[in-house]
Amino acid sequence: MKQIRVLLIEDHFLARMALHSVLSGHAQIEIVGEASDGEAGVAMYRKLKPDVAVVDLRLPRISGFDVIAMLKREFSNARMVVLSNYHGSEDIYRAVQNGAMAYLTKDASGEELLNAIQNVHRGLRYLPHVALDRLAERMPAVELTPRETEVLSCITKGFSNREIADELGIAEKTVRIHVSAVLDKMGARDRTQATIFALQRGLVHLD
């Protein structure tokens, strides 16, 4: 089994040691580096290019929010898991908007953290129900038709218009009309943002 190379970006020494202890005990995880502030975390990521970074949000020098945004701009395939003491809807929203693929609070179990890392490594989002519920509180209701909901589900799976047409048995031109309507109703600028909003609002659910 190929190991997942993980970078820890956490300013509290004891928390970092606890993370190291929990994760390094799993055969699939290799801790390749540890950083105690945001600036060092960004530099270490550039040097090591880990498969997954576990990032705290409240970091010295550069905040975790900015670390995530900077790395996502520089490395479009950067995969990051947030592990934070904070579980307010705005923290979760900002982290996901900036590019985090998972959000856990620090009372999460080691098994849940491992599960999040494994999912994110596979390119999947990992947002526990409590995080999705918090996000839903801050988002206005969106009413989609049954067909638009089907199209949105396909969008979240990364399907192209042609693939959506084949999946739903409709014309590609019709798909384009539905996609445009979905983005407009959700206030999303593109498919990626629509996917994030869909998960936040509970319009689709991760398997």
UniProtKB/TrEMBL annotation:
Q: Which Gene3D superfamilies match?
A: 3.40.50.2300
Pfam families, per the entry: GerE (PF00196), Response_reg (PF00072)
Q: Which UniProt keywords apply?
A: DNA-binding, Phosphoprotein
Indicate whether DNA-binding appears among the record's keywords: yes
**Superkingdom as given in the UniProt entry:** Bacteria
Q: Is DNA-binding tagged as a keyword?
A: yes
- Ranges for domain Response regulatory: 5-121
Q: Which InterPro entries match?
A: CheY-like_superfamily, EvgA-like, NreC/VraR/RcsB-like_REC, Sig_transdc_resp-reg_C-effctor, Sig_transdc_resp-reg_receiver, Tscrpt_reg_LuxR_C
Domain HTH luxR-type per the UniProt entry, residue ranges: 137-202
* Residue numbers of 4-aspartylphosphate PTMs: 56
Protein name according to UniProt? Response regulator
The lineage is: Bacteria, Pseudomonadati, Acidobacteriota, Terriglobia, Terriglobales
